[in-house]
Each structure stands twice: as structure tokens, then as C-alpha cells.
Design a protein that fits this description.
Helix content: over 70%
Number of helices: 19
Distance between the termini: 36 Å
Low-confidence stretches: 1-23
Number of domains: 1
CATH class: Mainly Alpha
CATH architecture: Orthogonal Bundle
Largest sheet: 2 strands, antiparallel
Length: 456
């Protein structure tokens, strides 16, 4: 880095002091912060991605690995990222530059880049929810192959990008206002559909698959990589979400408790989404390992058979689009914050640059579900990118970022910014210092485990 350690430390402390007095918009309350953070990261990751990974990696075996990763890794790392975002009030690029100099800035830009790539295919999936919402309003919900015929996925990507850009111009308040009402409604609708799904003929077979353990998958490194990726993906770790949202958090917010609540919301929605989808899958003979299209293949099947299916379809798909859309806004806003802060662009220009780049990169993913059928070795391009980014790059970047925060940030200030105090969980007493310790120990172990699993 070219600096003596005392100088670097002095600069970092100066940055913290500067952040404390620099004006920056904040959420109106801790509750508003949590609801908006949930809206930013709880969406298609839980309702679309989680079930299809459960289907591909052995049902209950994947769920167990996922829960372990959430508790031991995702909650501590989410606390580290959000606490540091609050402390420095900066985007990921500025934060890691002050934490680790030029190399840290490169990591920060890497995080912004990861977010842009993730959003590129997330916009495509969000476009599908928009298309299905429109179909439901017309009462013409189609099977997935028919729905994606022609170039529909590409046009829906373009429409999604345009609407995200228009909403971004309204700023943080737009996200907060939409989140307060619509996110709880989506949760209620998912629970209602899950309850109904238990009455289907395939519910028993679904339960055996969903809660059963398959040793072959449980002891497979690929299952654990995918589970860690899903935990990071859903929580926004290694993507700049929590750093950005933390930078807008109000004073006095307990970051550990908020991270645990965020994880609880993710886990709850994910598990219920699986309870909703897999009875449909086994009732109608859909392959559990159908891939990214699993949820969108299952949904139309149930709506035609259930009482009031037309109305339910409208409510569900509209709310699903809203959940997907709020996550799109969050991802674009995170990347836009880095562009705005580093290049001093006005918000309109930063939003235009980021959304334009996301849409451009999303074109190949959209084309993989059009008449063009873009694929890599017979696998849809979108699924290849999702596996590479969501189960690989996100984990590596999240581990590196958390390690830098844990090792380079002044520990006493970081603990104070968590505002977690000492919490008893059963026989254990949890303290902020534990979070920092986990941030120092887990990343090297995790990177070694990933390397071994790829070789063996």
C-alpha cells in the first residue's frame, strides 16, 4: 500500500471521524431500515433461486447445509458489513479503499461489478414476473415454454430496466414507501399458497424429499458451495447491499440483531417457498432438478386447479414482481452509489450508467430463454452465469471482504458500531468481539475448503 501502518491507521480514524459529521440521508427509523433491507435482499433469491437449488442438491441435505451457513457465516459477516457501512458512511469502493488502500479499492470495484452481473440476470427473472403478472391480469397464464416463446424475455428485460431507472430517480424514499406495505403482503400470499399446496396429492412425497437427508449430497462439496452461495446471495453479502444499507442506518441500531432478523426473514420465506413449490412439483410430475425455470413451471400448474385461481394468480404474481423489483432497485442503487461517490456523478447520470450496463449485460441471459436459445454446452446461459456468480464468485468476494474488515478495522470502534452488547443464546454469551473473531478465522478456512472441494 506504500504507507507506514501508523499513517494508514491515522487516515482510517480520520475517515471515521469525517463520516460522523458528513451529511447523508438515513432511514427514518430502525424498523424502516430493517423492512427496506429485507425488501432489498428478500425476493426472488428466496422464492425462485432457493427452491431450484433444493431440487438440484438433494432436498433436505441442501437445506441443512444452508441453515448451517446462515448461522455460522452469513449472520456474522452481514453484521461486519453493515456495521462498517454505518461507521464509514461510504460505498463499497470508498470503504475498502480506506480499509486496505489501492488493493481494497480494487476489491470494492469488484464487489460493485459482482452486483452488476448478478443484477443482469436478476432483471431477466424480474421481467418474467412482470410478464406473468400481466398474463394473470388478462387471465391468460401460460406454461413456461409458451411464455418464453419468441423474444419475450428480451423485451421484458428492457421494460424492467426502464422502470427501475425511473424509480431510482426518486431516491431512498421510494424504496422505503413501497416496502412498508407490499413485502408483508407477499409473505402472507406465499404462506397461503404453501398451506393450500399441502392438500395436493404430491404433498407426502414432497415432504419426504424436502426434509429427508441424502448422504451423497450432504457430503458433497458442491452442495456446501451452493448452500454458502445461497446464504451469501440472499443476505447480500459480498455484493455491497449491506454496506450501502448500513451507511443509511440510523444511530443506535443493533446491527447483530438486525442481521439475525434479516436472516430469519430470508430463511422463513425460503422454507415456506419450498413448501409451496415442491408439492406442485411432485403432484404434476415436474422434475425437481428442472433448474432456473422450476418455480415458473410450477406456478401455472396450480393456478388452473385451485379455487379462485385467477384472482390468486393476479395477487401472487403482482406481489412477486414487486418483491423482485425492490431487489432490482436495491442492486442498482448499490452499484450506482459506488459510481456516484467515486466519479462524482449526479444521481440521474449514475442511475443511467448503472442500469444501462446491467441491461446490456443481461441480454445474453435473456436470449437463453428466447427463440435464440443461447446456451453453453447445452445449458442455458443464465444458469451458467448464476452458478458461476451465485455459488462461486459471491462466496469468494464475501470471504475476502469480511476478512479485510475484521483484520483492518479498529476492533473497539467496530464493536461499538455493532451496538449488540452481550446477548445470551442458550448456554452461550454472544459479544461483538466474537463476530470479529469469526471474520478473521472463517475466510481462510472457507477458501481452503472451496479449493479442496473443487479438486477432490
Amino acid at each position: 500500500m506504500g504507507k507506514r501502518e501508523p499513517e494508514a491507521s491515522s487516515e482510517l480514524l480520520s475517515r471515521i471521524g469525517e463520516a460522523a459529521v458528513r451529511p447523508r440521508p438515513v432511514w427514518s427509523s430502525g424498523r424502516a431500515y430493517l423492512i427496506s433491507a429485507v425488501a432489498g435482499v428478500v425476493g426472488l433469491g428466496a422464492i425462485w433461486r432457493f427452491p431450484y437449488l433444493v431440487g438440484e442438491y438433494g432436498g433436505g441435505s441442501f437445506i441443512l447445509a444452508y441453515l448451517v451457513c446462515i448461522v455460522l457465516v452469513a449472520i456474522p459477516f452481514a453484521t461486519l458489513e453493515s456495521s462498517t457501512g454505518y461507521l464509514l458512511r461510504s460505498s463499497s469502493v470508498g470503504l475498502f479503499r480506506y480499509v486496505a488502500g489501492r488493493g481494497g479499492a480494487m476489491l470494492g470495484w469488484g464487489i460493485a461489478g459482482v452486483t452488476v452481473v448478478l443484477m443482469s440476470y436478476y432483471f431477466v427473472i424480474s421481467g418474467w414476473t412482470l410478464g406473468y403478472a400481466a398474463d394473470a391480469l388478462r387471465q391468460e397464464v401460460r406454461a413456461f415454454p409458451e411464455f418464453t416463446a419468441g423474444m419475450a424475455s428480451l423485451w421484458l428485460l428492457l421494460v424492467t430496466g426502464l422502470v427501475v431507472f425511473l424509480v431510482l430517480l426518486r431516491g431512498v424514499g421510494a424504496v422505503e414507501s413501497a416496502s412498508r406495505v407490499l413485502v408483508p403482503l407477499l409473505g402472507v400470499s406465499v404462506i397461503a399458497l404453501a398451506v393450500y399446496a399441502q392438500t395436493l396429492d404430491g404433498a407426502g412425497e414432497s415432504a419426504r424429499f424436502y426434509f429427508g437427508l441424502d448422504a451423497g449430497h450432504l457430503f458433497d462439496g458442491a452442495t456446501w458451495r451452493a448452500a454458502a452461495g445461497q446464504a451469501f446471495y440472499q443476505m447480500g453479502i459480498g455484493q455491497g447491499f449491506l454496506i450501502a444499507y448500513g451507511s443509511y442506518s440510523p444511530a443506535g441500531l443493533n446491527m447483530l440483531r438486525s442481521s439475525a432478523a434479516l436472516a430469519g426473514a430470508n430463511v422463513g420465506v425460503s422454507l415456506v417457498a419450498g413448501l409451496m413449490i415442491f408439492p406442485i412439483v411432485f403432484t404434476f410430475g415436474i422434475a425437481p432438478d428442472a433448474g432456473a425455470e422450476l418455480a415458473f413451471t410450477a406456478f401455472p400448474e396450480i393456478l388452473g386447479d385451485m379455487p379462485g385461481g385467477a384472482v390468486v394468480g393476479i395477487v401472487f404474481f403482482v406481489l412477486l414482481f414487486v418483491a423482485a423489483f425492490t431487489s432490482c432497485i436495491g442492486g442498482a442503487a448499490v452499484a450506482g452509489a459506488a459510481v456516484r461517490d467515486e466519479f462524482h456523478f449526479n444521481p440521474r447520470l449514475a442511475a443511467a450508467v448503472v442500469v444501462g450496463l446491467i441491461v446490456l449485460l443481461g441480454v445474453p441471459s435473456a436470449l437463453s430463454y428466447t427463440a435464440a436459445g443461447l446456451s453453453v454446452d447445452g445449458e442455458p446461459f443464465l444458469e451458467v452465469v448464476d452458478r458461476l456468480m451465485g455459488s462461486g464468485v459471491v462466496v469468494a468476494v464475501g470471504l475476502l471482504g469480511s476478512a479485510l474488515i475484521a483484520w483492518r478495522m479498529p476492533a473497539p470502534r467496530l464493536v461499538r458500531s455493532m451496538r449488540s452488547g452481550r446477548r445470551r443464546i442458550g448456554p452461550f454469551v454472544v459479544h461483538g468481539a466474537w463476530i470479529i473473531y469469526l471474520g478473521r478465522v472463517i475466510p481462510p478456512l472457507g477458501l481452503v475448503a472451496i479449493g479442496v472441494s473443487l479438486v477432490v
